[in-house]
Amino acid sequence: MKKIGKLSLVLLVGLALTGCSQNSKQNTAPKKNATTKTVKNNKKPTRMGHLSAQDLTPQKTVAVVVAYAGNRYSGSWNKALLDGKQNELEVDLKNQSDYSYMNEGSGVAYMVSENAGYTLKQVDGENIYYLFLNGKKLESVTMKEMVAYLNKRDSDKLVTNLAKNAKVNDERSDSNNASPNSTGKKSNLPGDDGLLNVPRELQGTWYTYPADDNKLETIKISQNKIDNGYSSLELHKINAKFANNHLYSDMSKSYRNATKNWGMAQMIGKKIHNINYLNVRTWMQGAGDGIYYGAHTESGQSVVVIGEGAGLWTNSVAWKTPQLAQQYKHKKFRDLFYRDDQ
Q1: What domain range is 142 assigned to?
Q2: Are the C-beta atoms of 89 and 162 separated by less than 8 Å?
Q3: Does residue 256 lie in a domain region?
């Protein structure tokens, strides 16, 4: 019995020592792990947005596109984003046919400024957005891709605020939308086929120095009018059959008075020297080629090329500011067609 007691005592002491040894290892070894845990806990979690590509209102769709493009691209896209933050976000729905460089889409151009906009088309059940700037395509992107990009930047609040102040204006003309000569309101006067809707990229105030002239010329082009400083013309399409069978000199005095400020206008409908031109002549003008206005890009800037004559030679290039007009005064560009080139 005593031997058994001594043996039990030895076993108990051994177990106690083993436990102390294990506790000692546990108290010393995990120090590295504790440090690792502290580092992990101090790491800031990545913030993610919660935007969804599903069931977006028209306003929120515009907000997503502008937030995405405004962050990725400079110029008019970024300006549209900044304006949307400070004031309101505005997009005009236009006829895609009014923009010669928009070759992809479903017929509607969504313009956030004169030279920045997008079109969209459904492909395999998913909407593809085509982004444009200064007459050039930037990229094609899906709504899911734009939303994913914005979610990585936690842009929920930005998109919500933009959508809250977003305004969508439908400015598409009613008929002949697919025609290069989209038509507006028609009068009751013989020969009038309606106002010609000028492509958006031609609209605005432009500045140029005509060839062999050191005087700055200002040209203002709106949806249906053009003012070159010498005359202001309301742009109408003319009925071809009427034009072939009537002379202006044979028309009544009242007719001539009613049309004295009309311009006979048409989009050429095909590229000449790689440019789509608007041709403007006085109403029922017989002889003469009139003046041609073509949207183009030079030195990274949106410009209007002004052409003349039977060969549609370049007379000058009109710019968005007097400073640019002065900078490129009388400069001849290699991609344009001049009378000297013939």
Answers
A1: 58-170
A2: yes
A3: yes
Cβ partners under 8 Å of residue 246, min gap 6: 190, 191, 284
3-state secondary structure of 200: helix
- Number of domains the chain contains: 2
The predicted-structure confidence for 16-72, as pLDDT tens digits, reads as follows: 444 444 444 445 444 444 444 444 445 544 556 678 877 678 888 999 999 999 999
d(C-alpha 131, C-alpha 73), whole Å: 10
- Dihedral angle computed from the Cα positions of residues 251, 257, 261 and 265, in that order, rounded to the nearest 10 degrees: -20
Domain for residue 49, yes or no?
Answer: no
Residues 97, 149 within the same domain? yes
Task: Name residue 131's amino acid.
Answer: L
The residues, ordered by sequence, that sit 6+ positions from 304 with a Cβ below 8 Å of its Cβ are 202, 206, 208, 219, 221, 293, 294, 295, 296, 317, 318
CA separation for the pair 183, 193 (Å, rounded): 8
Q: At what angle do helices 156-164 and 58-72 cross, to 10 degrees?
A: 120
In whole angstroms, give the CA distance from residue 341 to residue 338: 5
Average pLDDT over residues 194-216: 92
